Amino acid sequence: MGRKKYLPNDASFLMHTAVDEKSSAPRPHLPIPRKVCVIARTHSANQDDWMRAYMYSMKSQTMGNFSLSLVNTDTGTHDTDIMTKERERFSRLVESMDDERITLAPTLPQNTPDTYGYVETDMELARLLANESCEYIHVSNADNLLNRAYFEYADEYMRRNIDLIGVSFVLHHARANHKNLPITTKFSMGNIDLACGVFRTETIKRCGITFLPTTRIFEADWYFFEKILKCPGTTKVAIPEVLLMHQ
């Protein structure tokens, strides 16, 4: 038995339940949502249960027109045995999702520990940009939780071809001596998380945007946003609803 197949979006969202007077078929309601290709970065700090919870939050999206590639960004070794065991571990994790939309990316660790997995991230980004079905890109460290309506909210703006879409989020790190505070997303350093963003593929292609090179590796996520914002003609929108829990 193969892995479960899913409609490109939630059927109840796409179709009215009422029956057309001249046909027994349901009437179309809204167009098929834009296709989002997801890069889920993993590294040694990610526990399997965190990644599993993240992927379940993807599986539960009310609009399911996405594909997710789990990218092994565990860098720093050429040990064949270790790499093989890690790939087997991630393969088992992906298989446990029983969802054909969730796959293990073909990208392999490149033994570049000082880049914290951004070499592999850029490699997977290039692979997805060559896929004509990818209309938008979403990148996460695979330890966040998405509200099930995340892509449903974003799709309103994806269908308007907005280049950069951001959602508000709950921040795990302490701010004003408190953790788990809701943050209204702003397109500025410290006020947005990588997983808050949905990026238009054509804009990334047009301006040749990648994570590397960067002069400040620990701020590479923010500088990815900044590169998009500096791309001529970029349109952006910040969604006020809190749709992501940062871990």
Automatic annotation (TrEMBL):
InterPro entries: Nucleotide-diphossugar_trans. SUPFAM superfamilies: Nucleotide-diphospho-sugar transferases. This is Uncharacterized protein. It comes from Sphaeroforma arctica JP610.
